[in-house]
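Follow-up to my post from last week.
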Amino acid sequence: MIKQPLYIRIGLALYLFMFFTYLIGPLILMSITAFNSASFPQITPWEVLTFEWFPKLFSDDRILRGLKYSLYVGFFTVILSVSMGLAGALMLTQIWPKLRSTYYTIIIAPILVPGVVIGISTLVFWAEINRILGFSADSYLQNGIFLSVLGQSTFIASYCMLVFVARLQRYDTGLTEAALDLGATHLQAFRRIQLPFLAPAMASSSVLAFLASFENYNTTIFTHQKFATLTIVLSQKVRYGIDPTISALAFIIVCLTVLGALIHEVRTRRVQLALANGAPVGAVTGGFKAPKFFAGNPAAVVLGLFVGAAVLIIGFAQVYDPAPAKQAYTDQKRAIQKKAIEAIQQKARDKVRERQMKGPKVFETKKGTGTGSPGKDSFGSVFKPNNLDEAAGTKKKKPVGVNPGKGAFGNIWKSDNLDKVAPKEKGN
Amino acid sequence: MLTNYFKTNGMVMGWGLLLLVFFWIVILIILPQIYMFNLSFHPHLPPPEMGGPKDFLTLENYRYLVFGADGNPDGYNKVDLLVFIRTLTAAAFVTILDLFLCYPIAYYLGQSTGGGFVRILVLLLIIPYWINEILRAFAFKIIFGDSGVINEFLMFFSVIDSPIDFIRANVALYAGLGYAYILLMIFPMYNVIESLDRNQIEAARDMGAPWWMIHKRIVIPYAKPGISSGCTMVFMLSAGALAAPQILGGPSSLWFTQLVYQWFNTGGNWPQASAYAIILLLACLVIVLSVMKLFKVNMGDIGK
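User reply:
Got it. Predicted complex:
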């Protein structure tokens, strides 16, 4: 490539940086909130480093049940959509040429049809079948897992089909014919010749199908009935009240994804390197030699660092006790609140005094936020400007002694966040 | 014909293939759509009355979208129509946003020689795509919320006094939707640009073409199938998105899929929901097909 002028290279670097900030930044920020002890997932104000959301996550029944249903649905979806996708791909090469493009359009269409439409059509169709057959409303045809598997497989099979078509293009049908000539049955030829050739495509389409099923929302929201999968549970949690256990889950999922991607990258890179050096593939896919493993393979280095960091963090979490820091934070916050309340009381007293001095005529009072209060300036933007009033207002209802102030300010901010979600749901 | 088919596949394999493909195409794809289409022309009735004397074909469900309930003083169902139009324009906006955002990176990746740096970039591209849709929206809620990162940051440096309501202004929604489908825009373009012969660009450069002319005359015409494929995917998916608008949408701005969801779950009116779903499907198809016609791209290029 020709060397570009400097301004283009700087521009490109800047663009790449911004682009990947947009891409990765949200995930990092979300992961960080999992370690803040504030009861609302937030980065600022940072309270205390904590690992408490992880045990809380693992004791959340709804999430665990959601995970179980997700695994059920995922398992059956993989089986159904991989086999349908494979059949669809095999059929594509055999169907009458005149029909081929129509056929291809039909089996590719589910990818483009909105998931909402697939979900609704699956549900209404099977409800009708159920009615025609005269089954009761809770028969297995109306089972949430059954419907979710069918709804998801409708379009996931199309993804699988694309993977198989790409692989089949390189298949030499002469191999199958040779096997048949040598006396194999069709089933044997398929199982012993074609299936091993398709094994990589099987693996990647299975992973693809499982991930697509696991994260599907649009279709499952209509078909799940009583079996809320993990994604559905998450969406309900995010819409009706957020807490950092979701961040903890997000952190785990991000880590697993990164781990999976790195392992995949390391493996492909190793094979590539070996092939470039002229070694047979079998020689490198086994065995593990540390220096060689990392050589010329940046992903392997990253993977090593990643695993090391994970071990360190888990070890640190075992010995780390957030209680003292939390106590200090609570004390600090209580002191701030006390000062704020004092400031407001002082202001009220001043006002009364002022009124007494100026007489009853002067009635209008400045609607301000106690600009002279000691608490606000010294803590800068820990507060929002109008927070002092709100804090004081809440405190009147809830004395400091009863609620030792965990997330008191967080709650005040949160309250209007939640309202914003709620009216939308109620209003329509 | 069929005997030939069974000769090449054998009885067991042949029937297995036929059965699977039949199940997929007829039972999963075609019949449910046809039934939903049919249902959308029926009135909303409790199950015992279905097929009874009150069950007749009607256009009522479609009429409702345009004119609203009987005796509507406005004459038109302004709320729903507005939501419908806004959804489509917003989806188009998100598509264009993604196109401009992704074209440079697709070009950069496609034209690079594939060193270790590029491999890491591709890895970074794929990772967000495998994070759950809900969690991606959740991340944007953390960033754009009232006490979100951006507001806190701006207030810390006293750029603003009170939080900006990004959610109400739909900034969060557009950013979240654009984010969700970046990969679907990049990869089709990347695949096409990768196969572009670099000599063509070199030749144009040698002839003295400025960089924008190279893109206009060589890269973009060549990448057209990839661009249209990416745009189609992003447009369809963002118009049909449900989770992101539910989580990131402002209180006053609904997405059309949310109307469908409400008819279905809250209202329990399946025929009405079906009618809305059909309208969404048809509108998306018409827009995508006409845009493809406009840019002279074939259906077969999609999904490559």
